[in-house]
Amino acid sequence: ARRRREREREALRRVATEVAAGREPEAVLARVAAETAAQVGAPAAGVVRFDGSAAVTVAAWARGGAPAPAAGEAPPPGGSSPIAAVHASGAAARTGGPAPGDAVLAVPVRA
Length: 111
Fold this sequence. Notes:
Elements (H helix, E strand, L loop, with lengths): L1 H19 L4 H16 L3 E8 L2 E9 L19 H8 L3 E4 L6 E4 L5
Helix pairs in contact: 1-2
């Protein structure tokens, strides 16, 4: 648990460095996606903004050619995806298996 907290703090420090350097919001959010993927062992991650009933990817990151949503795209908030579940409930959602890369995780964050 201690090592995990250290990795999380290091990731937050890297994001804060991007912000402090005055990077564009897209670059900061891409860093957030990359750090999130690294924390959960995922091959890709994206940051999705909800605007009413629409979900839009504002940044994404993928390792070594893994598929990732393009900016400006996202699945509709209906259906059974984790993104749809977060939109409907406001709570974190996960689908897939227990191994890294088998699961899809969505976590709500309020700006």
